Amino acid sequence: MTLRCLFAVLALVGATFAGSQVTELKVDVVSVPEGCTVKSKHGDMLTMHYTGTLDDGHKFDSSYDRDQPFTFQIGVGQVIKGWDQGLLDMCVGEKRKLTIPSSLGYGERGAGNVIPPHATLHFEVELINIGDSPPTTNVFKEIDADADNMISREELSDYLKKQMIPADGAEMSEDIKQMLENHDKLVEEIFQHEDKDKNGFISHAEFSGPKHDEL
């Protein structure tokens, strides 16, 4: 397993939390390949390489470090709003710099100790591929270890830990170590967002990450 599904789940935390410090999304086009005939639009599956930093230059995540691009469906809330808005009309091979206000990122809550409250996010992004079909990965099923169609805190915690620990025994980055240290807080933040009826479980209907319509 890779971290792809992990960050798809973590993106849920930032999908609805809003701050008020900076209000405008800034998109700087770094380079565009010649002969671009197809551009990204709502509903497309985008495969991206990216590096994310804070105002002070601290790098909080990078797909380049994992040598694993990130795939998601744009415009459906799988990622923060700054990505849903800032990656439209983009060509394969195009590179951009995004400056995302906290209102379009992780808002007043932040994300554990990785992204602080009210943080402005800076991303260097490169579009690798545009697809037209959603991913086949059923993240809900992968988290729901006992197959009872309900995700408990324990199941989510175990899943996140498995995604963070390198399968090949490679050394963990400092960012991942920090996320492991604070993963209990991440679990609680995800539950605050996903557990709509506050019954202590996330149902298939409540879960807004990648899932299949059928159970």
UniProtKB/TrEMBL annotation:
Q: Please verify whether the record's keywords include rRNA processing.
A: no
Specify the EF-hand domain's residue ranges: 138-166, 182-215
Give the signal peptide, or none: 1-18
Catalysed reaction equations from the record: [protein]-peptidylproline (omega=180) = [protein]-peptidylproline (omega=0)
Q: Which PROSITE patterns match?
A: EF_HAND_1, EF_HAND_2, FKBP_PPIASE
Alphabetical UniProt keywords: Endoplasmic reticulum, Isomerase, Repeat, Rotamase, Signal
Ranges of residues in domain PPIase FKBP-type? 43-131
SMART domains per the UniProt record, alphabetical: EFh (SM00054)
A GO MF label = peptidyl-prolyl cis-trans isomerase activity
Pfam families recorded: EF-hand_7, FKBP_C
Q: What class of enzyme is it?
A: isomerase
Q: What is its EC number?
A: 5.2.1.8
| Tagged with keyword Isomerase | yes
* Alphabetized PANTHER family for the sequence: PEPTIDYL-PROLYL CIS-TRANS ISOMERASE FKBP7/14, PEPTIDYLPROLYL ISOMERASE
Q: Could you identify this protein by its name?
A: peptidylprolyl isomerase
Supply the source organism for this entry.
Parnassius apollo (Apollo butterfly)
